[in-house]
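Example (one chain per record):
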Amino acid sequence: MYDGITIEFDKLDSIIGTLDVLPTDNDPSTTGFQNHYLETLDWWKNEFGSLENMPINDLVNRLNSSPILIGKGRKMSDYTDAITEMKTILLE
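Predicted structure:
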């Protein structure tokens, strides 16, 4: 269990087994998102001295609870976080 999501291993294994990694289309918004969180990691490194000193569960939770944009709009309802989206996918 990570980030409050409890799931049976067999179910998770069946879902992960169907994942395909697709090539990117060099989407500028995705690149901007990644660059933003690389900068955020630098802030967190300063807080802990280095990422090696940061508990991995804390690091993962910080990334997974950060706001992300789903959809094309800019309304508050178009934003979510990875934890909410993972719960939707894994627990349906």
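Caption: The chain is about 50% helix and 5% strand.
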